[in-house]
Specification:
globular; mainly beta
């Protein structure tokens, strides 16, 4: 496992080439993913602080702030293009993923997922709202084939998969036994899902198998677990989806896919 940087990290995502975006609760840093050199620091406007969750979509960098807003930066110039969401929509963003038409934000404080329209930023709907029986402290979300939304629940120690086709939001799979799951990512080429188990210092993976005829989810395959020497806070895909990025409280590491 190759590691670099000593800092109080929260989350990270790849920005193309050797560029990696990293949050440390208050700011967003642009780092070289191969050398670890910090290239630039991005401050959110209006004295807001980055909450941790961030995502890249095309030339856009989405950053969730502590007060509930989402800032969208242009990666080419790192300037703010627009802002949407507020504390009424979600109180503490704990994960974000960008789809073809919508932006999904995990609201860890209110135990739900909130959906915004991608182009306008307008509030669209709530997913899995209704109490901890439906979703309890969602810590991370991922999207596969722009259809299957993968939700990590720390307090319920499980992962849920929803079919969001045409906004029908149908629950199709629940996987238990993921103690203190803190993050999930999915490889877009093969449907392999990696989940970080914070207290166990593990990364566990399974695979989503999709019927090619109608793109329906047919089953999952439980696979390997990798033991680490540190507690993985969050995960991201790197180097053209050939490396697994691991964020701990003090380190940013890169691991070969397993």
């Amino acid at each position: 496992m190759n590691c670099f940087c000593e800092c109080e990290f929260r989350e990270a995502c790849e920005g193309g080439g050797d560029k990696v975006f990293v949050t440390n609760k208050s700011s967003v840093f642009v780092a070289n993913g191969r050398t670890g050199e910090i290239l630039q620091r991005i401050l959110v406007e209006n004295d807001e602080e980055a909450a941790g969750p961030l995502a890249v979509d095309g030339d856009d960098l989405y950053v969730v702030t502590k007060t509930g807003g989402v800032y969208v930066y242009s990666m080419s110039g790192l300037v703010i293009k627009r802002r949407f969401g507020d504390c009424e929509a979600f109180q503490r963003g704990s994960g974000i993923v960008v789809g073809r038409d919508d932006v999904y934000v995990a609201d860890g404080e209110q135990n739900r997922l909130v959906v915004f329209q991608k182009e306008t930023g307008h509030f669209d709907r709530v997913l899995l709202g209704g109490g901890c029986a439906f979703v309890c402290h969602p810590t991370s979300i991922a999207l596969y084939k722009n259809r299957f939304l993968i939700v990590a629940e720390m307090c319920n120690s499980r992962i849920q998969v929803l079919d969001i086709t045409q906004k029908k939001d149908r629950l199709i799979l629940v996987l238990d036994g993921f103690l203190n799951v803190s993050s999930v990512v999915v490889n877009p080429t093969n449907g392999v899902v990696y989940a970080s188990l914070y207290s166990l210092r593990q990364i566990r993976k399974f695979q989503l198998l999709v019927n090619e005829e109608d793109e329906s989810l047919v089953c999952h395959v439980q696979a390997r677990t990798r033991q680490l020497d540190c507690s993985p806070r969050s995960l991201f895909l790197s180097c053209g989806d050939t490396k697994l990025g691991i964020v701990t409280n003090t380190r940013l590491c890169f691991l070969d896919m397993f």
